[in-house]
Design brief:
Elements: H1 12-31, H2 37-44, H3 48-51, H4 53-76, H5 78-98, H6 102-131, H7 135-166, H8 171-174, H9 176-190, H10 203-226, H11 231-253, H12 269-297, H13 302-308, H14 310-331, H15 333-351, H16 360-388, H17 395-426, H18 432-460
Helix pairs in contact: 1-6, 1-7, 1-9, 4-5, 4-6, 4-10, 4-17, 5-6, 5-9, 6-17, 7-13, 7-14, 7-16, 10-11, 10-17, 12-15, 12-16, 12-17, 12-18, 14-15, 14-16, 15-16, 15-18, 16-17, 17-18
Amino acid sequence: MSTPSAPPAPRRWTALVLIALAQFTVIMDTSIIGVALPKMQVDLGFSPEGLSWVFNAYVVAFGGLLLLGGRLSDLFGAKRIFVAGWTVMAGGSLVAGLASEVWVELTGRALQGVGAALIAPSALTLLMMLFGARPKELTKALALYGAAAPAGGTAGVFLGGVITEYASWPWVFYINIPIALVVLAFTPGVMPSSPVRRGSVDFGGAATVTVGLATAVYAIVRAPETGWGSAETWLVLLAGLALIGAFVAIQSKRREPLMRLGIWKSPNLAGANIAQLLMAAAWIPMWFFLNLYLQQVLGLGAFASGAALLPMTVAIMIMMIVLAPRLMARFGSKPLIVTGLLALAAGMLWLSFARADGTFWVDVLPASLLAAAGMSLAFIPSLGTALSSARPEEGGLASGIVNTSYQVGSALGLAAMTAVSAAYGARELGDPEALTNGFSAAFIGAAALAAVGAVASLLTLRGAPSQDSAPGEKQGPARPGRPPRGGRLRRAGTSRRRPPGPAEPRTWGSGRCWGSPPVRRSDSG
């Protein structure tokens, strides 16, 4: 017998706006600094190699501390951690904007990443608290949440160009402060509260995985200068991997780990996170190098380059909000994840044919729209499947894991494709032919990552079992005079069949493939 669900929160849609704004902002902060980097280099004295750490300091702190943010959300309540995250984000933005030296700038960016690591998992946990018991509303909520990510990425490029051109680069950081104040003002009245739970926090594990990730990214970023075959590259890379391995060993021995390793036994959790990791490893390099192609090869200015990415963003938002939920209800999540990743790979392979004397309408627009369609199809189903694979009390952990997968994929994918593009000519600034060759190589590499993600999803994700059976219950044809296997004789006049209706996402924590359509068996013997 089902338990009646709690009454809906009266201001849950207002809360969803704040949650989507959180996703928009943390993704915007990965891209808004791109156009401002040359002026920051001149004003602060960054070296060419050190300049990349304006991006990496944020992403590494963000990705490395997401599990800690998820654990803190589970222990102290998602609402409290959400507020703390915005406070840290505002403080880090102020430090980054006021910086007059390299180390101060990197400190501010790292603080922004810490704030994002608290905001992202707590925001997803709050979303599941508000909508998890109402599958139809959850589909809409996740679609709006998912659409906020590409909107934030493109808005970052566009706003970064406008701010850098018409104001000054510190304002790419100051823009976060009024957003944070608005969110902090509305959060107490619209977000649900949760009780504080007893437990310890594994700060040592959080530090180990963060340093390990930073070390691995550093090795990959430095590889073009030191050489992929050099002892320095491999020693640093192995040190990073050893620290990540030490983190796993620590988690296996702790009584209250930062990441309970048993959570990976949940069906589909690993497959959905692999899809998110490889999707990000492909998507972020595509966006990064497409922006460089528009500016350095086609000669578009900062403002025009940002505007050129708007069709892709609009397409993603429309498809995520309108098309993806309907297709999920019809076909389920696994087919959409696989198809979406294949479409993403095809779009990037198409972009690899871009010409040095190309045009936006021929070389960029159609291929970018195909890639956007793939991202739209794969993102929401893989995100929903990853979240639904955890128990409700581990919602923060599941949110932290899936956000970590996406951010780690972003950092490692961009670092690897940057090395690939540099090896094939992207260092030759001012030479459109060489730059195009380098960018094309990066697009091909990113397409390969998306294709691997599609194959991995096909092999690892499972569809949902019949709605008429409990998880793990075997089904077979009914025999005359006997009840169906695993079941009992029904009372006269009753039926176990549900009335027909639209497919619904599985209950949070069911461990099933989220969004899969119901499979009903016939009652005929």
